[in-house]
TrEMBL record:
GO terms for biological process: N-acetylneuraminate catabolic process. GO terms for molecular function: DNA-binding transcription factor activity; N-acylmannosamine kinase activity. This is ROK family transcriptional regulator. It comes from the Bacteria. It comes from Devosia sediminis. Gene3D superfamilies: 3.30.420.40, Winged helix-like DNA-binding domain superfamily/Winged helix DNA-binding domain. Residues 19-71 form the HTH marR-type domain. It holds the Pfam family ROK.
Length: 398
């Protein structure tokens, strides 16, 4: 149960913690009643009523019709007000960026995507700012005032993998000097928060999992390279510098019997290199729009090798971090993602396991734009909601 008062916290801090607890219950249990909020949170009825009144005045929640005919006093249901707040998510990826406008209820309002050969720090921030302004132009002045800011996500500061994309000399060094959140903030005039793309993807994944959500989840996302992260009991495994759980950098045995990295075996970049070596077409733009049938001769062996590498990475992650399930998602057509999942399971089943239990593997539910959604959601979560994960895990309202 949520503990409303913690020793050493100021009254303002207590009030804010209580408010976040109430909002979290309303987000996790849409339609929850005022009486149920008081019961589940441990707050008194009068305190709950004051908080709900304040949240309603600020347009963060909507009061429903009074429910009569039930045992006890008539109950008033509450839901998040989709128009109460919004945020922008920005994903700066290896070969694309996405800009998302999302409301506090987690619903997308608008999204844009641009593709490129590599992220050029000289031009990308201006392009992002232009797309941000385009999305904001559709908001009324009142809704624009309710914008919480920008959650921006990227694979750290990119680093040596840029060389794999043929980026010019000096590109990695240029990225190494950039504070990405500060640069986005300067270009857009909005507050910005940075989070690693794997962590953003993992956060989106855990929020779309059905209740009761797994306590521990390892997330693998197959894009240009392989990103991912770990969520344990509602906490992101981010590390002191924000780049923990870099699953793509896990070392794997690449057949025949040589070491490599998951990035270089299980990624779309690895597939593109196979296709190029076979004299196939240059793979550009959104992978879901590629002509996959035309490159099937290279897709089939890539799926086998990628599944073999992912199975090893799943076992390594499970050995280090206690998880219930590993999810595999990607910027892929559903049919290809399904085949990749089958390949991973097959190789996992064929591998001797010394763990207490063989890890479960399932298809991710977060979709191909998981990172940008996760970044936008994390900004709102950290602004408005409680860190007490059990509040989101409550049973549905009755």
């Amino acid at each position: 149960m949520f503990e409303p008062i913690v020793r050493g916290i100021t009254q303002t801090g207590v009030r804010l913690a209580n408010e976040r607890a109430v909002l979290s219950l309303i987000a996790g249990v849409p339609g929850v009643s005022n009486a149920d909020i008081a019961r589940r949170s441990g707050l008194g009825p009068q305190t709950t009523a004051r908080i709900l009144s304040d949240l309603e005045t600020r347009d963060l929640v909507i009061r429903g019709e009074v429910l009569r005919g039930r045992r006890g006093q008539p109950a008033t249901p509450y839901r998040l007000n989709p128009d109460g707040a919004c945020s922008i998510g920005v994903e700066i990826g290896w070969q694309h960026f996405e800009v998302l406008l999302q409301n506090i209820a987690g619903e997308p309002i608008a999204i844009t995507r641009r593709s490129y050969a590599y992220p050029d720090p000289r031009t990308i921030f201006g392009a992002i700012a232009a797309d941000v302004e385009t999305l904001l132009a559709g908001l009324s002045p009142d809704r624009r005032r309710r914008l919480a800011g920008i959650g921006v996500t990227s694979p750290g500061r990119f680093g040596p993998l840029l060389d794999q994309l043929g980026a010019p000399d000096g590109t990695a060094a240029a990225w190494a000097t950039i504070d990405i959140a500060a640069r986005v903030s300067r270009e857009t005039g909005l507050d910005a928060m940075w989070v690693n793309d794997g962590s953003a993807t993992a956060w989106r994944e855990i929020t779309v999992q059905p209740i009761p959500r797994p306590k521990g989840v390892a997330v693998f996302f197959v894009g240009t390279f392989v990103s991912g992260g770990v969520v344990s009991v509602g906490d992101l495994l981010e590390g002191p510098y924000g780049n923990a759980a870099d699953v793509g950098s896990i070392m794997v045995h690449q057949r025949p019997d040589r070491l490599s990295y998951l990035h270089l075996v299980g990624s779309l970049h690895a597939l593109a290199r196979r296709v190029a070596a076979a004299g196939g077409p240059l793979l550009q733009g959104a992978p879901r729009r590629w002509d996959w049938a035309a490159i099937e001769a290279e897709v089939a062996p890539w799926l086998d090798d990628a599944g073999h590498a992912l199975a090893q990475a799943v076992l390594t992650t499970t050995a280090m971090v206690e998880i219930d399930i590993a999810t595999i998602n990607g910027d892929l057509p559903e049919s290809i993602l399904g085949r990749l999942l089958e390949s991973t399971r097959r190789h996992l089943d064929a591998t001797p396991v010394l763990l207490a239990q063989r890890p479960r593997v399932s298809q991710g539910l977060a979709g191909p734009s998981a990172a940008v959604f996760g970044a936008a959601q994390l900004l709102l979560f950290r602004r408005y909601f409680s860190r007490d994960w059990d509040l989101f895990e409550a049973e549905p309202a009755k």
